[in-house]
TrEMBL record, chain A:
<feature type="domain" description="Fumarylacetoacetase-like C-terminal">
    <location>
        <begin position="85"/>
        <end position="258"/>
    </location>
</feature>
<dbReference type="InterPro" id="IPR011234">
    <property type="entry name" value="Fumarylacetoacetase-like_C"/>
</dbReference>
<dbReference type="Pfam" id="PF01557">
    <property type="entry name" value="FAA_hydrolase"/>
</dbReference>
<dbReference type="InterPro" id="IPR050772">
    <property type="entry name" value="Hydratase-Decarb/MhpD_sf"/>
</dbReference>
<keyword id="KW-0456">Lyase</keyword>
<dbReference type="InterPro" id="IPR036663">
    <property type="entry name" value="Fumarylacetoacetase_C_sf"/>
</dbReference>
<protein>
    <submittedName>
        <fullName>2-keto-4-pentenoate hydratase</fullName>
    </submittedName>
</protein>
TrEMBL record, chain B:
<dbReference type="Pfam" id="PF01557">
    <property type="entry name" value="FAA_hydrolase"/>
</dbReference>
<keyword id="KW-0456">Lyase</keyword>
<feature type="domain" description="Fumarylacetoacetase-like C-terminal">
    <location>
        <begin position="87"/>
        <end position="250"/>
    </location>
</feature>
<dbReference type="InterPro" id="IPR011234">
    <property type="entry name" value="Fumarylacetoacetase-like_C"/>
</dbReference>
<dbReference type="InterPro" id="IPR036663">
    <property type="entry name" value="Fumarylacetoacetase_C_sf"/>
</dbReference>
<protein>
    <submittedName>
        <fullName>4-oxalocrotonate decarboxylase</fullName>
    </submittedName>
</protein>
<dbReference type="InterPro" id="IPR050772">
    <property type="entry name" value="Hydratase-Decarb/MhpD_sf"/>
</dbReference>
Length: 263, 255
């Protein structure tokens, strides 16, 4: 890996985030599909945020969990990004448009962890046993890259296109609803703009989360108590416009709202 | 003046022999009213061959499909006894032009229903709800049609498979639906994609059959509409639909 180019890519994305002005893709520097280089870029900006900026990790997000999105980017794997505590927005709280960068919304299952997940081979039963509770969530994804012109490496380098997130307020246990078959509808002005089911997320949100838990443990940054995991979209992502209010309903899990302010 | 009985014969023969025909709109654009007359006439031909009307199907029940065809209301077609496919059974690919399958919710009626009704009145006329698969098959080349074409072609209805019935107390607003082909997930969706709530499709069905002087009758099946995009059918496919809380329905595709 060319460290100078990785640093240049990190700087380009950092500046775009700081100024709110989208930048060119970084694939000219690190290639379109070099996953290792892309996570190295993400890691540089993670360290900046946790170090100089004193931001606090609140969890992780999983992206590229649907077959159609994986096919679009020509990959067979999801990706992950970091969540910080100031990304959280309250249910229905107005989201200042200036906080968003080319926002789109996705309805997801959020897991809140109650126990650490460490070790060489984390199993599904370990994951299920470590879940404190489950919440419905809307992830407001964003892109620092102009026009969402992203390759696999671009989105990974850009913290998996993370933005903001809203959590619902009806905690459930994993046994309380059907993780695979739960229906999802996201409404805007009473119209369903995205529909889906749990199975759209790698067969089940638990499958995606187990993938993440293993990745995090292997990277020495394991999931632990209090961590929020946004496990991936249950239906197609939808463009958000100023003034839009979205409500996501996940059957058996409750509902949550994302309300955007005027530009 | 369009020769509606002649058009009905063309479409009925196309369906009966599984041979695609040119869009009617290429030579004779049909108004919705005329298109529904053609549909009724073509169904009369089926009844004359011994088929019975056993229910209705609703189509264009998602915003995406309405936008595709450029309309803002749903359409309906008639289901006949010959379209019924045994749950867990086989259907012959060769009996259709270019069949596709869609995951749906079905209502079984227990009381007559027709005209302007509320969702509550509609539900009171329902005996049971069930997961269902609908086989759609446009009788036009390349599955291309305008609104008049598709209405005249019985809203592309071609076959249906009904799964196990559940009581109407079951909340059907937002049920996850997973359609698999040979075990692989082909489509995922929610019953909420059907007009926001499948019961709205039943209300629309009651309104629309009344305009044709018909009613939903006890024992009728009403297919509420598709929850996802349709999947093309090919011989050798094992198709299964699982619906959250309602169970599963399956069919196998033969030559």
């Amino acid at each position: 890996m060319d460290q100078a180019k990785i640093m240049e890519a990190a700087d380009r994305l950092w500046t775009a985030a700081q100024t709110g002005t989208p930048c060119a893709p970084v694939r000219d520097l690190i290639g379109s599909d070099d996953v290792e280089a892309a996570y190295a870029v993400q890691e540089i900006n993670t360290r900046r945020l946790l170090g100089n900026e004193e931001r606090v990790l609140s969890g992780r997000k999983i992206g590229l969990t649907s077959k159609s999105v994986q096919a679009q980017l020509g990959v067979g794997q999801p990706d992950f990004g970091m969540l910080y505590d100031d990304m959280e927005v309250m249910d229905g709280e107005e989201i200042a448009w200036s906080r968003c960068q080319q926002p789109k919304v996705e309805a997801e299952v959020a897991f809140v962890m109650a126990a650490p997940l460490t070790g060489a081979h984390i199993k599904m039963i370990d994951l299920i046993a470590s879940i404190g509770f489950v919440l419905p969530a809307i992830e407001v994804v964003g892109s620092r890259i102009a026009g969402w012109d992203i390759s696999l490496a671009d989105t990974i380098a850009d913290n998996a296109s993370s933005g903001l997130y809203v959590l619902g307020q009806s905690p459930r246990r994993p046994a309380d609803f059907d993780m695979r078959l739960c229906g999802m509808v996201m409404l805007r002005n009473n119209e369903p703009v995205s529909t889906g089911a749990g199975a759209a997320c790698m067969g089940s949100p638990l499958n995606a989360t187990l993938w993440l838990a293993r990745k995090m443990a292997a990277a020495g940054n394991p999931l632990g108590p209090g961590d929020v995991v946004l496990s991936g979209a249950l239906g197609p992502m939808v463009d958000a416009a100023p003034g839009d209010v979205f409500e996501a309903r996940i059957n058996g899990l409750g509902s949550v709202r994302a309300a955007f302010g005027e530009a | 003046m369009a020769d509606l009985p002649a058009i009905a014969e063309i479409l009925d023969e196309a369906a009966r022999t599984a041979n695609a025909v040119a869009q009617i709109s290429e030579t004779t654009p049909l108004t919705s009213d005329d298109a529904y007359r053609v549909q009724a006439l073509s169904l009369e031909r089926r009844y004359a061959r011994g088929e019975r009307r056993v229910g209705v199907k609703m189509g264009l029940t998602s915003r995406a499909k309405m936008a595709q065809v450029g309309v803002d209301d749903v359409v309906w077609g008639r289901l006949t006894s010959a379209m019924r496919i045994e749950e867990g059974g086989h259907l012959s690919r060769a009996a259709f032009v270019h069949p596709r399958i869609e995951p749906e919710i079905a209502f079984l009626m227990k009381a007559p229903l027709s005209g302007e009704v509320s969702a509550m009145e509609a539900l009171a006329a329902v005996e049971a709800v069930a997961p269902a698969l609908e086989v759609i098959d446009s009788r036009y080349h390349d599955f291309r049609f305008d609104l008049g074409d598709v209405i005249a072609d019985n809203a592309s209805s071609a076959g249906f498979v009904i799964g196990p019935p559940a009581p109407v107390s079951h909340d059907i607003a937002n049920l996850g639906m997973v359609l698999t082909v040979n075990g692989h997930v082909a489509e995922t969706g929610s019953s909420a994609a059907i007009m926001g709530h499948p019961l709205r499709a039943l209300v629309a069905a009651a309104r629309m059959v009344a305009t044709a002087g018909e009613e939903l009758r006890p024992g009728d099946i009403v297919l509420a509409g598709a929850a996802t995009a349709a999947v093309p059918l090919m011989p050798g496919q094992a198709i299964a639909l699982q619906v959250e809380g309602l169970g599963a329905v399956a069919v196998n595709i033969g030559d």
